[in-house]
Write a structure and sequence with these properties.
heterodimer, A: 286 residues, mainly alpha, 11 helices, 0% strand, elongated, B: 319 residues, MetI-like fold, globular
Chain lengths: 286, 319
């Protein structure tokens, strides 16, 4: 790493640490990751063990979040649900990042007809409301955890591609890229060494905010029964199943809903904070 | 670039996009698992009757022929027959669509009446506890899925207060009072969900305007603070806000798919879900294309309006 890059990186870290939003967001995410990792150890009960006589118990010491209509411990289910939510969020956005960055950087670097073609295709995908596109894809593939991930990755690819394209486009016209082209460097060298590293900032912001969106969308799909299938403890699915009992046992819906809100707030805060630090004027597509 | 040529260019883009949208819709719905003829005739159907029905429905034609048939029909407003209801798809959509539009428009009205005053107050009292509270609430508002807002509203206003019915729909033409009664909760829930964005936009845009020189000038002239804020700053701050409202309408229209399920609202969103459940491909294709078209057009209008009032946008390419 050159001195200049080190200084740049150091400045970023200092500003990041001083940004309250980013730090709170990071803390929440850290809490979620730990909960997901240690769910098998810290969960007080088996999340899938039914116990009909103990159904719909109100929150108590034994069951801090109560039990559901099948007598399952809601706290344990919410904890295991963290695994599903994070898994869906991280895998679908990683896949969307790989596809979207490739498309966006190729479009922004080569421009012309390639750019036109790729971006019109992205526009077409963005012409569907995200939930509609996601649920049609899931319906086509049959509802399951992996197919939800595929659908969400496809839905969010164009959002990433747009950000990557505009970042690549602005880097493309910088003098150091022109210089690299004049030196006769290969396209691959320029893309990987010059263009990509300069797209990282805006892409990180977009990815963080999009993870929040995938979590909302996964919850909505599961709520419609077009997502993760029972008895897997997904937050959206827990709400789907608890909804009918909301009048007498609101905790069936309340706690998974709270979990969704906390997770989404965490990623939104991180994204907002990152944007403040990395790219104060950057425009994010929401 | 003149606005007219900008508009022509964007319309050209939209035509290409629309073509791709029909391709995606047709492609996706045709890989939907399940044999349509078998679904209609049931498991006891004979080979011959299945083959006969497939010929009748044009299902034995190559896919590109089916696609062209579909597009030609679409251009004439003919979306085929629903497999499940055995009525024209266009007729079904014509009944359901206005109900969804009613919901989305009402939600947009609710959110505008809530968010603009809140945004102005937050901007005028920048960095005070009132502003921080409003901004924090908006942040939390952004972090709940629309369907959860629906459940919260049902829980509070229907189950606990008993003020409104939990679900259902009454046509305004039949009984306007009852219709309003059924509309308030779903429109309110979606309106609140949308409030956060518009409020944030109003706030930041008002803060920008309030720091401009002309605001200082107006104050120096001795105009009252109320006049300065409401007559001068608000007028200029309104431009980005109106754009956001137009985007929010399209967002609301996307949200109806889920919210209609929560409130048993018989609009196009629930029709889409029913079509998926029944593998009713012509109906599903019709629903998707109509929803996408409305979503596209409202986004386009928002873009065009923005470009019209802010010429800088026209030079920046498409975004």
């Amino acid at each position: 790493m050159t001195e200049e890059k080190k200084a740049h990186y150091g400045r970023f870290l200092r500003q990041f640490r001083r940004n309250q939003k980013a730090m709170i967001g990071l803390l929440i995410i850290l809490g979620l990751v730990l909960t997901a990792l240690f769910a098998p150890v810290i969960a007080p009960h088996d999340p899938e063990a039914t116990n009909i006589p103990d159904r719909e118990l109100a929150p108590s010491l034994e069951h801090p979040m109560g039990t559901d209509d099948l007598g399952r411990d809601i706290l344990s289910r919410v904890m295991f649900g963290t695994q599903i939510s994070l898994y869906v969020g991280f895998t679908s956005i990683s896949a969307a990042m790989i596809m979207g960055t490739t498309i966006g950087v190729v479009a922004g670097y080569y421009q012309g007809k390639i750019d036109e073609g790729l971006m019109r295709a992205m526009d077409a995908m963005m012409s569907f409301p995200p939930i509609l596109l996601a649920l049609t894809i899931v319906a086509v593939l049959e509802p399951s955890l992996n197919n939800v991930i595929i659908a969400l990755a496809l839905v969010y690819t164009p959002f990433i591609a747009r950000v990557a394209r505009s970042a690549a486009l602005s880097v493309r016209n910088e003098s150091y890229v022109e210089a690299a082209i004049a030196r006769g460097e290969s396209d691959r060298y320029i893309i990987f060494r010059e263009v990509l590293p300069n797209c990282v900032g805006p892409l990180l912001v977009q990815a963080s905010i999009n993870i929040a969106f995938t979590m909302l969308l996964e919850a909505s799909l599961s709520f419609l029964g077009l997502g993760v299938q029972p008895p897997t403890p997904s937050w959206g699915l827990m709400i789907n199943q608890g909804w009918a009992f909301m009048g007498d046992a609101p905790w069936l819906v309340f706690f998974p809903a709270l979990a969704i809100a906390i997770a989404v707030i965490g990623f939104n805060l991180l994204g907002d904070g990152l944007r403040d630090v990395l790219d104060p004027k950057g425009e994010i597509i929401e | 670039m003149a606005f007219a040529s900008y508009l022509v260019k964007r319309l050209g883009f939209m035509a290409v996009t629309l073509f791709l949208v029909t391709l995606i819709t047709f492609g996706l719905t045709n890989v939907l698992p399940g044999n349509v003829a078998l679904l209609i005739l049931g498991p006891n159907a004979t080979e011959e009757s299945l083959a006969q029905l497939e010929t009748q429905l044009g299902l034995n034609q190559p896919l590109y022929v089916q696609y062209v048939d579909w597009i030609v029909g679409l251009a004439r407003g003919d979306m085929g027959m629903s497999l499940r209801y055995n009525t024209p798809v266009a007729e079904q959509i014509a009944i359901r669509l206005p109900r969804s539009l009613l919901l989305a428009i009402s939600a947009t009205i609710v959110s505008v009446t809530l968010s603009i005053p809140l945004g102005i107050i937050a901007a005028v009292r920048k960095n005070t506890p009132a502003d921080l509270t409003a901004s924090m609430l908006a942040f939390i508002g952004l972090s709940l899925p629309i369907f959860l807002w629906g459940l919260v509203f049902i829980f509070v206003f229907a189950l606990n207060l008993g003020a409104f019915p939990t679900r259902g729909y009454v046509s305004p033409a039949e009984d306007p009072i009852a219709a309003l009664h059924y509309l308030i909760l779903p429109a309110g829930a979606m309106g609140v969900a949308l409030t956060a964005y518009i409020m944030r936009m109003t706030r930041s845009s008002m803060i920008d305007e309030l720091s401009e020189d002309y605001v200082e000038f107006a104050r120096a002239k001795g105009l009252s603070e109320q006049t300065v804020v409401l007559r001068h700053a608000l007028k200029n701050a309104a431009i980005p806000v109106i754009t956001v409202i137009a985007f929010q309408f399209s967002y609301a229209f996307g949200g109806v798919v889920v919210l209609e399920e929560v409130f048993s609202w018989p609009g196009i969103g629930r029709l889409t879900l029913t079509a998926i459940e029944n593998r009713d491909i012509p109906l599903l294709q019709g629903c998707i294309i109509v929803i996408a078209l409305i979503y596209m057009v409202s986004n386009f209008l928002a873009d065009a309006f923005y470009a019209y009032v802010d010429p800088r946008i026209r030079y920046g390419g498409e975004k």
